[in-house]
Amino acid sequence: MKEKLNQYHIAILIYMTQSGIVIFSLPRLVAENFGTNGWYVLVIISLLVTCNIFLMQLVYRFGKGSSVFDILEQRIPLAVLSPIYILLALFWAYLGCLVGKQYILILQMLAFPTTNPMVFKFIFDFMALILISKQIYNITKAATVFFYLTIWMVFVFFFHFPEFSWLRLTPFIGYGGIGGLESWLEIYIAFLGYEVCLFLIPYVPEKTKVFKAVYIGNFFLTFIYLFICVIGFGFFSFGQLTNLVYPLLDMLAYLQLPFIERIENFLFTLFLFKVLMTTVIYFWIAKITLSRVFRKVKSTWLDLSVVVVSYGLSLIPQVISEVERLLRMLGYTQIVIVYVFPLLLLAVIALNRMSNRRRENPS
Amino acid sequence: MKIRLGLQLVFILVLITSAVQSSDYRILEDLGFTNATSYDLVEIEEEGKPPVMRLRVVNSVPKVDPEEPADREILEAVADTSKQARIVMSRQTNRMLVSGQLRSVLFGLELAKAGVWQHIDTLVRDPSIGQRVRMVIVNGEASELLKRDYKAYPSTGLYIFELLQKESNNQAIPNVNLYHFTRDYYDDGIDAVAPIIKQGADSITLDGIALFHADQYVGRIELDHSLIFAFLRGNFTKGDLGMALSHEEHVLLTAVSSKRKVAVKGHPSDRDSFEIVFHIEVEGSLLEYIGHKTLSDDKGQQQLVREMEEYVVGQADQMLKTVQSYRSDCFGVGQYVRNSMKAQQWYDMDWDAIYPNVKTKVEVSIKIKNYGKFQ
Amino acid sequence: MNTQQPTPVQQTLEQFMDCDDLIYRTYPVIQTELIFFGNLVDYQQINRDVIDPLNHVRMEEVPALLQQSQFEQETDVAKVIEGIAEGNAAVFHQGLMFLANVYGPEHRNVEKSETETAISGPHDAFVEAIETNLSLIRKRVRSPRLKAVRLHVGEIMKSTVYVLFIDGLADPDIVNEMVNRIRDIEIDGLIDANLLVQCIDDNPDSIFPQFLTTERPDVVTSKLLDGKVCCLIDSSPTAIAAPTNFFEFFSSPDDYYQRWILGSGVRILRFVAFIITVSFTALYVSVTTFHYEMIPYPLLLNLAESRNKVPFPPLFEALLMETTIELLREAGARLPAKIGQTIGIVGGIVIGQAAVQAGLTSNILIIAVASSAIASFVIPSYIMSASIRMIRFGLIVLAGVWGMLGLMVGLGLIVIHLTGLKNLETSYLTPVAPMKMSDWKDTFIRGPLWSSKTRPSQARSKNIHRNKMRK
User: Fold this and answer.
1) How far apart are CA B60 and CA B38, in angstroms?
2) Rounded to two decimals, what is the model's pTM?
3) What is the mean pLDDT of chain B?
4) How many domains does chain C have?
5) Which of B7, B11, B28 to probe by mutation at the C interface, max C CB count within 10 Å?
6) Using a CB-CB distance cutoff of 8 angstroms, which residues of chain C are in contact with residue A258?
7) CB-based contact (8 Å) between C350 and chain B?
8) pLDDT for the residue numbered C1
């Protein structure tokens, strides 16, 4: 019984892929880049993302549910595509692994100051390898379970209400921020991850409202981001917020229960699952891209190569600032890819249609 | 299949290597967890050199071996920065010094006057130190207070923490921890405060509330007026208010809960019409009354309430003037003013200069929930 | 002239050479011979059906007697030999061979189950005789739609296996899958249902059991009504139900016999117990080794003082105590009942106390380990709780080396493993993944009876709706 993905799972998968380590610095990023009450940009960016998802929905509809690789290969010879595929796969694998590396480095700063981070990266990649060697269906199931394990953290924020004050949000919009294109791009990176829906198309049963689930996943993410940013802006004063590198960490650290305190260590390690999901999905995209080039190779070797190569690449940046800089650059590139790719696909689909029609009416 | 097995073996190998090699072990009983730290500015005289201000840091570290005579270790160092002092202190103990369990941090008065932000910055930067570390100013030398053992009370570090916790529940002092201080320091519409303690004969006593402008100590509020301070600073639900209405009349309200609203009237550019109005609603149980009025009839009650309200208004007005003279916007008036105008106006205006001369008005309404079980 | 082919009787007796318990009776007057295993037959039945008639019949009436329905004619000697080994009585008359089914060996009476007890509700449990077990189920499900497909497993043992399902409720694909898997088993013999399960598992290497095993007929009946498929195996008091998911191992029949709110409370308690038993000791180890700042102040000094006397790091201390508890548990299982109780008290109290005083462990660890042990008994399925015990060790080691991260890594690995498990091609983590909200009212809580309108989705039953109840 071949299993297919269903709506709930897709929404959760999209949410888990989009949600990664950025959420820890998001209130500060928004404050630094857009000033007081800067969280309004999240709504705007979410709308942009929705438009992008719409483009992808068009690919699904006009492509009649065929996989994006099939569409491309109809038109463009494999010899031309292969190096592009390999490059893209490398790029995506690197992106995924850097996300993991950033998480590891922050974790190291918090709890294991003197241990070599590559040890943790190894464990992380080990888990990622086990996950991608299973089918996408199982990956989605794991994402669902991880979702349930981590979503209750939202309730932690009820503890911040006593110290929350609307006054601190100030009535001003946009003061003290840098603004500019790079600011917008930087916040947009926080929403990346939804592009996996393009690659999921062949795995969903026909006639499902797949993209409805993608919209829901994105919407949910926006809601969570807004929630945390608004609380961050009301809990911390503006100047304080711009100086806290990971405001979410400080918010979590404020929680105090009678039988345990300072659970931010515990909650931060719980984020392992969210980051793992993001990395695994990017690895998976890289793997299926590679599998179009190396069709004869067994999938276990592909998995292994993706993970090993990315582990090697992750040795390059050593410190948090380097990783963040690289991640930004890769993120900007991914934003470009994410808009260009569906447009390219639509163009190819249109060309395919025209050539089909010409074939049918030779005149 | 074989690959999976191989990977699992590698995993176990990494596990074992990690176990053996890890330098990050922080095993509980090998740690010396600092309970309380004090910072003082001291003048050090060295031969041939002019006196220079350095930092004296004292750490109170509870002991875990019940068989040892003292219940805590006192580590002391004089250095230029707190982390340097920490290195010196760690050489004085046989356990690994950690600050994750830090509960309270004490600043001497002289240091507070010079500015505490550098040290708070160090504390906030350290990921192992929590946000809820209480902050307190010591009237005198903080290290003297911390080094002393108070016989009738538990270990000094714990004593200070429990004292602060209990008293802030009663609104005798405000609840101030590192998070509060950092937040108010960076907010341009409010200034931070902190409690003050001092050494008593055999115990530690509260000594009032410290007012800050930016990170420097600028003045204090006496302990008797702490509840008025609490009225003006925000909402709360527990406290005791004692009022001496006149020579022979004394009233005590308990289980006091208070809500505060601040209204901004007019505009700072127009001096005459610009006014800040505090509107305070108080509720309490009247459990002690010494005086002539009869409490069993409406007229007496109403008169009593009126007189209490006048008393509170008078005290609050006085306090506002005092606080303004210190230039400390400890009640967050600036936040409300900020909310009432456009951004450009706020950032162009120099609130610090305007604040000391702002007109304020206090309106109080007191409701007596009950008079106890005796007429 | 002894090239004559041996008679059937001679062939049979030759096959059964050295089976001195074989009974061979001759009735020379009517030229009939009787062969059977005395210890396999039900004496009342064989007397009534075979021996008495043969005693009283005359020569010319024998063929008529042998036409009666309890005698089945056989032409193949091999089949007759098999039949005798299976407990039939073989009758030989003038070259003809007949088998009479008089199987009825010794078996235990139906008693209470030792391992699965319920406070209220039926107490009868399966025994080692398959027909008795089947009768316990048939008397509950008195419908012709209860089908029992008979299979034989084991080359030498030739155990009878019945695959039970309710026609119209169970999914035919699942039934076929079950039947095919059992048919495909190549093994000398299956001694118990638990071995059968290991032969037909989707993931035999996993530490988690995938088929639900139970000794109680009421559980089997409720699974059948859910549209699931159950198996009975001869000489095993355990029955199997499939398809199962992970959460079913946490439900006990008691949940259903009580009020639903109580049942829900107890079920939630079981999941909490699961979390405690898996992670509590590991949490202790990770906090005392890496994350001292998580301990609230009042507890801190106590903990530090009690750990102060212990010469080993927390990881070793925890492993030592956990191993001791496992030893106690295993020893308790082997001891005869009379000594068992005393040793239990000795082990538990004295050793624990003495260990603390000798400075080998801290008392807080003893509490952690003891509560983990107690919590592990809350899980109704013994096999599942045994699996969880093993996981606990893994988590403790991971927590001792990598602190909180190790704990999360362990948890993550468990989750990843669980999501890959299947039972009869259905996902092991239904209804969480794949998600079926309507099933949740019987997973984490026990919903009221009036709300259980549909059968669980994992069974893929074609008939989803249960019969209506008033409401």
Assistant:
1) 9
2) 0.88
3) 85
4) 3
5) B28
6) 296
7) no
8) 43
